[in-house]
C-alpha cells in the first residue's frame, strides 16, 4: 500500500527544478507534511557512484550503456528510497525520474521510446508519479543559466539540437498525459514560479485526501 504522494520534477538544463523542488519541500515541511526530497541520478550510495560514471566520464558511452546506468540508478533508488518513503506515507519529491530517460535517451539520443518505457516499468516495478511538474524553459536561456550557475557536465555539453529534441520530447510527453503533468514556464521570476507550484501541489494534495 502506497499511502504517500509522489511528485517528480522534469525539465531541460537550467530550468531551476532543483531549487524550486527544494523550496517546495521546505514549504510543505513547514505545513506539517512529512517530506522526502531526492534526485536522480544519485539518490542512493550506488547512485552516487553511477552519477560519477555518467556525468564526469571522458570515455564516450554508447546510448544504451548510458540508458542502462540511469535505469540501474533508478531501480536501486525506487527500491531503497522512494517506495519505502511512500509506504510510510511521506510526500516524495524527486528531481528527475522516468521521464528524463524518455526525454534524454529517447528523444535526445534517438533510442526507441517504447522500449525505454518498458525498461522504466521494469526498473520501477511500475511506480508512476501522482504528479509530474515540467519546468519548461527556452533551451538557450536554460543553458546560459546553467553555465553561470555550476559545473558543466557531460550532457550539458551536447549540441543545441540535442537539447532542443529533449525539450520537444518533454512537451510531447506532457501533452500525451495531461492528467499527470503540469507545465510551468520557468523563465518567470523564481517566487512567481514557486507560488504557482505551491498552489498546484496543495490543490492536488487536497484532492488526493
Ligand atoms: P544534474 O547535474 O542532476 O542536472 P540537472 O540539474 O539538470 O538535473 O545532471 C543530470 C543529467 O542527467 C541531466 O543532464 C539529465 C541527465 N539524465 C538523463 O539523461 N537521463 C536520465 O534518466 C536522468 C535521470 C538524467
Summarize the topology.
Layout: E1 5-10, H1 17-30, E2 35-39, H2 45-55, H3 63-87, E3 91-95, H4 98-108, H5 113-124, E4 131-136, H6 139-149, H7 160-176, E5 181-185, H8 190-208
Parallel strand pairs: 1-3, 1-4, 2-3, 4-5
The chain binds thymidine-5'-diphosphate.
Structural account:
The chain is globular and about 45 Å long. With 209 residues, the chain is of the alpha/beta class. The protein contains eight helices and five strands. The protein has a five-stranded parallel sheet, with helices on both faces. The mean pLDDT is 94. It has one domain (5-208): Rossmann fold. Helix 2 (45-55) packs antiparallel against helix 3 and helix 4 (98-108) packs antiparallel against helix 5 (113-124).
Short description:
The protein is built from 8 helices and 5 strands. The protein is α/β, with parallel strands linked by helices and 209 residues long. Helix 2 runs antiparallel to helix 3 and helix 3 (63-87) packs parallel to helix 5.
Amino acid at each position: 500500500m502506497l499511502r504517500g504522494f509522489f511528485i517528480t520534477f522534469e525539465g531541460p538544463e537550467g530550468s531551476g527544478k532543483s531549487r524550486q523542488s527544494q523550496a517546495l519541500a521546505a514549504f510543505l515541511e513547514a505545513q506539517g507534511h512529512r517530506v522526502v526530497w531526492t534526485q536522480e541520478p544519485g539518490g542512493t550510495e550506488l547512485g552516487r557512484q553511477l552519477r560519477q560514471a555518467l556525468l564526469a566520464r571522458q570515455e564516450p558511452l554508447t546510448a544504451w550503456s548510458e540508458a542502462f546506468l540511469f535505469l540501474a540508478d533508478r531501480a536501486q533508488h525506487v527500491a531503497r528510497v522512494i517506495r519505502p518513503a511512500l509506504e510510510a506515507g511521506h510526500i516524495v519529491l524527486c528531481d528527475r525520474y522516468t521521464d528524463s530517460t524518455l526525454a534524454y535517451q529517447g528523444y535526445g539520443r534517438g533510442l526507441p521510446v517504447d522500449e525505454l518505457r518498458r525498461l522504466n516499468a521494469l526498473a520501477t516495478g511500475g511506480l508512476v508519479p501522482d504528479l509530474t511538474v515540467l519546468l519548461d524553459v527556452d533551451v538557450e536561456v536554460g543553458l546560459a543559466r546553467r553555465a553561470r550557475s555550476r559545473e558543466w557536465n557531460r550532457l550539458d555539453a551536447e549540441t543545441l539540437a540535442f537539447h532542443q529534441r529533449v525539450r520537444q520530447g518533454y512537451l510531447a510527453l506532457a501533452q500525451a498525459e495531461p492528467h499527470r503533468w503540469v507545465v510551468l514556464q520557468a523563465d518567470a521570476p523564481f517566487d512567481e514560479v514557486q507560488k504557482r507550484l505551491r498552489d498546484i501541489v496543495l490543490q492536488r494534495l487536497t484532492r488526493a485526501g
